[in-house]
């Protein structure tokens, strides 16, 4: 499923008007007709309309509902003198029908104040009162295209915003419908056709119906790749164990952990299949590997950080880089220009902030631009972890992962993700980061269903990786 920015949606509409000769008034009518389908069955309808095209949709919805016998009240929010074009055409009709009247009570409310062009804060008292009325009403609220107060391109929410029960969007979902916190205000999202031709124009893609490639019947452990895990330290030995075990569960043929002796002892107590060697043998371990998983729990001391920089600049093997290794990169991002093979980095917002010199708030408020800019500038696939994880490629492609659960907000969860992605890279899967994010999130969901959203640990997530992969076979 593709996701559009507000600018891309305007371009689609302009193309329909110019190239296909579809009147803009007809597009507004189509949007209104598609929304009306979801209002049927309610007798008293209140419609709050702004002065832009979103308000124009609202006026058209009001007219269609009136014609169908509904008791409709329309409230104009904002300066009526600013209404023009197609919106003004529809306003004149509802005025002649006598539908402009105070809203007192309703069985259902239509929010058509601000559309996808909204940015910033809401300071107008009239608008604030209208939003508060909708949010405090027991009647369900349907938002036209996007709830008022939610930014379509980022999912950012203004100081006040409509909490809709249902959002009816048109042609294609927008980023703000999917990204947090905006998605929390949309309720049930319904995307309806309005006769606009949607073509893949380098749009952002929402992951769905992913499929893993078939596993060859005639194969051996070498066929499915050797993962070298360089991770863990005496304070965090479990990170290496979790990463290694996850790589096996995700299908790697052989997992070799090159770690400190204390870490190796922890691995051997619970991950029996993992081969271990000491960090002094790192060059040999790398030479034998197909893929390297670097960084989880490796530590931030001088020796650990020097090891990270050595592996980054000298290895010619593809890598997944996470956690403490990202701190080494943040201290000197020039190492990324010295990479000799493809690289995937998997920062959480705090690590991304360190990499970019931003605050965490700046990162979470603009996930897509932050991830895609970094990916392009440094030539690394950037998987920016969040409730909606963003995966950006250096070639400009951007994906948003819909799977996941608050159950994954536990220590060690990122180590598991690193292991899964490394295993997929070792098996030669295209877009391993995309598949890895999807399977990791699905495994978390399955674990939460069985164990509750509170009780899931990273080890539990590993146990559900194989079942999660069956959802993508």
Question: Mind explaining what this structure looks like?
Answer:
The relative contact order is 0.09. The protein is 42% helix and 16% strand. It folds into two domains: 2-205, YjeF N-terminal domain (Rossmann fold); 226-470, Ribokinase (UDP-N-acetylmuramoyl-L-alanine:D-glutamate ligase). The longest helix has 20 residues, at 432-451. It has 473 residues and is of the alpha/beta class. The strands form two sheets. Strands 7-1-9-18-17-16-15-14-13-10-11-12 form a twelve-stranded mixed beta sheet, with helices on both faces. The protein has helices at 6-19, 24-36, 53-67, 85-96, 125-136, 175-178, 183-186, 237-249, 261-270, 282-288, 302-314, 324-331, 349-356, 360-364, 367-378, 413-426, 432-451, 458-470; strands at 2-4, 44-49, 71-76, 108-112, 141-144, 166-170, 173-174, 188-192, 204-206, 226-230, 254-259, 275-278, 291-294, 319-321, 343-345, 381-384, 390-392, 398-400. The model has no long low-confidence stretch (mean pLDDT 96). The chain is built from 18 helices and 18 strands. The two termini are 19 Å apart. Helix 3 (53-67) links the parallel strand 2 (44-49) and strand 3 (71-76).
Task: Describe the structure concisely.
The protein is of the alpha/beta class.
